[in-house]
Amino acid sequence: MLGPVLLAAARSDSIRRLVSAAPVTRPMVDRFVAGEQLEQCLTNVTSLTGRGMQVTVDHLGEDITDRSEAVRNRDAYLALTDALAGAGLAEHVEMSVKLSAFGQALPGGHDLAQRNVLPVVEAATAAGTTVTLDMEDHTTVDSTLAILGQLRERFPRTGAVVQSYLFRTEDDCHALAGEGSRVRLVKGAYKEPAAVAFQNKGEVDKAYVRCLKVLMAGKGYPMVGSHDPRMVAIAQDLAERYGRKKDEYEFQMLYGIREAEQERLVAQGHGMRVYVPYGTDWYGYFMRRLAERPANMGFFLRSLVSRG
């Protein structure tokens, strides 16, 4: 299976240099990443909102190595918040943040990430939008949920992300499904050990449905993060079973993936939010997208080898 290999390669500096230098890379990156600069990102975001989409924007910058990078990432989000407010987009566009980009993995990282994310959430609230805390590998879950809990004391609309392939996630869904809680459910995109996560796709899918039932039955606001047609259909059925109106949950899909399905859901009156990443530090995100999509992965690797 090439997927696990690519997930491991996402953390390799030597492979990063090879991939970044390959001529075939740029067109593939452009499919999944909405530009390296904020201006490019805003152009793509404006196009999406003009077609009835909601958006969440991610400034790429995980796996940082020092505190100055964490500050730069914080400042990039503050600039993004100002830009969204200035463009009149805050009503339709929120932000997604990875706490690793704010220093979570550095020494003293929990407190550092909390200090750096707080002004971003404050600025987002002042601008009329929200922040969702992305979930990363299993070693970060407890820290991320603890920071979420602290933020929600002042900013209750701060969103959470949970990953169905982790054994613990069904319990986390029960804890997070309270009044007003915004929770994005995804399958998971990191290489996790068998001690903490389902390894079989069928088991991951079953866990996703179990978690989705918990969220749809709860009092929060489920955000269905999936491109899987079966999961989209199941989510619609569960929403109807639990009496949810179309504005009481939403679908979320990645920028550049299943665009026709995104348009279809909007045409049906569903909330459809597109996850839009931008920035120069695109490598880790790009490699995870290839690992998730075998067709894209095969095309890219064949092109990389032939160009090499």
From TrEMBL:
InterPro entries per UniProt: FAD-linked_oxidoreductase-like (IPR029041), PRODH_bac_arc (IPR008219), Proline_DH_dom (IPR002872), Proline_oxidase (IPR015659)
Binding site residues for substrate: 98, 288-289
EC number: 1.5.5.2
GO molecular function, one term: nucleotide binding
Cofactor: FAD
Cofactor annotation remark: Binds 1 FAD per subunit.
Example of a GO biological process term: L-proline catabolic process to L-glutamate
Pathway: Amino-acid degradation; L-proline degradation into L-glutamate; L-glutamate from L-proline: step 1/2
Alphabetical list of Gene3D superfamilies matching this protein: 3.20.20.220
Family annotation (Pfam families): Pro_dh
Keywords annotated in UniProt: FAD, Flavoprotein, Nucleotide-binding, Oxidoreductase, Proline metabolism
Domain Proline dehydrogenase: 42-299
Stated name of the protein: proline dehydrogenase
